[in-house]
Design brief:
This protein is about 35% helix and about 15% strand. Helix 1 runs parallel beside helix 2, helix 3 packs across helix 4 and helix 4 packs across helix 5.
Length: about 300
Amino acid sequence: MNESLLIGSHVGMSGKEMFLGSVKEALSYDANTFMVYTGAPQNTRRKELADLRIDEAKALMAQQGITQFVVHAPYIINLANTVKPEIFSLAVDFLSLELSRTEAMGSHVLVLHPGSHVNAGAEKGIAKIIEGLNEVLSEQTDCFIALETMAGKGSEIGRTFEELARIYDGVHRNDRLRVCFDTCHTNDSGYDLVGDYDHVMEQFDRILGCGQIAVFHINDSKNPRSASKDRHENIGFGTIGFEALYRVVTDPNFTDIPKILETPYVALPGDNKRSLAPYRYEIAMLRSGSFDPQLIERIQAGA
């Protein structure tokens, strides 16, 4: 059992306990790291920092030995939008707010989807992302923005390592940039994690540098490589498979990098209103290094 593996999942933040509840949820999965949104990922409504119970959450993390966690920016931030200036302005303003909230909560990594160019073309979209990041990042920024590798659906930017590198090249304070490496997205955008993992990482190292990876999203994929679909699957039940994902999470080059599960909840047979988090089971499976083909049934039986 690999107890030193730095692994967790995305967790919620709601109700009276807020961030304290996020830490408790992570601990219920036997996780030693986690990822959280500072509010609903689909909107800009946010509670005051004073209402998040940050000090209590930090105390519980310290007690339980959790030293790292990751914040994810909401999906509605689109720095690549060249069509509607008001959308770009909202993205810049809200990203600045999310950076300050991330720092106040005690994380140094804010994951960001680079954005979608809305059919204006990748060149224009990348230029707009650079413009936005140059507005947001400064010498005072005490947090990394981790640009996520994307699956390539629609007009997403970040489907190739080269696209992310072009963003780096244009950002003045690119020392404040990092990468979130999503296994499902990378597979769906065309990289062969299953058959040629070493070459994929050699490419990444040559183009961006493996030291730029600040977090991994560990997800299997419902789709074949190069499908450009972005549909996550439970660990070992997709086209990437357990062996390839286990190789990623145990790569000695990334021992100190958080690995975050975003796999689907498991539905209960005959009950459309309830589904169960798979994370405690998937974390245990990855720590043990042994794939359990009965995982879904075990999760359902544990309801």
